[in-house]
Amino acid sequence: MEMPYTYKGAPAGKKILVIEDNEDLRDMLTDVLITYDFQVCTLEYTDDLEQLALELQPDLVLMDYMLPGINGGDLCGQLKRGEKTSHIPVVLLSAYDKVIVSLGTYSSDAFVSKPFEMTNLIATVQSCLKAVENRVPELESVQH
């Protein structure tokens, strides 16, 4: 079965999976992320983020907190509980500041409040990706 989702943008760039139900924001995020040399795959909704992440192998997931029928926090928890996906950083986007209080529950790596400046969002994405790169040598040294 062929995967219906593909990445677009810089072939050597880090892979960002964007899950956002607002089409205009989704398109704007795609354009900006590609400008910063990321590969981007977007979708409006998923109910199985863990399986999608296994198929797409993103370096980071950027998603809205309020999605149709499910909240991004629950999807984040799904991803973070997965043995093969728990290392993938997740950045939640929300217009609801009270979500910040729930971050520990959902184990997201960062939260960006809407509306946001794109430069702040890019800085958050880059910071989360850098944190993963810094953890990798630690993981390798533990395995040896």
CA-CA gap between termini: 37 Å
| Total E-strand runs | 8
| CATH architectural arrangement | 3-Layer(aba) Sandwich
| Net shape | globular
User: In what range is the share of β-strand residues?
Assistant: 15-25%
Fourth CATH level, the homologous superfamily: Response regulator
SSE string: EEHEHEEEHEHEH
Task: Kindly report the CATH topology.
Answer: Rossmann fold
Helix count, per DSSP?
5
- Quaternary organisation: single chain
Roughly how much helix do the residues carry, as a percent range?
40-55%
What gyration radius follows from the Cα positions, in whole Å? 14 Å
Low-confidence stretches: 139-144
Secondary-structure class: alpha/beta
What is the total domain count? Answer: 1
In round numbers, the mean pLDDT is 87
Question: Reading side by side through the largest sheet, how are the strands ordered?
Answer: 1-3-2-4-7-8
Overview features:
144 residues, alpha/beta, Rossmann fold, 6-stranded mixed beta sheet, two-stranded antiparallel sheet, 5 helices, 8 strands, 21% strand, globular, disordered C terminus
Structure description:
- With 144 residues, the chain is an alpha/beta fold.
- It has one domain (8-143): Response regulator (Rossmann fold, 3-Layer(aba) Sandwich), CATH 3.40.50.2300.
- The chain is built from five helices and eight strands; from the N terminus they run ββαβαβββαβαβα.
- A six-stranded mixed sheet has the order 1-3-2-4-7-8, sandwiched between helices. Strands 5-6 form a two-stranded antiparallel sheet.
- β2, α1 (23-35) and β3 form a beta-alpha-beta unit.
- The chain is globular.
- The relative contact order is 0.15.
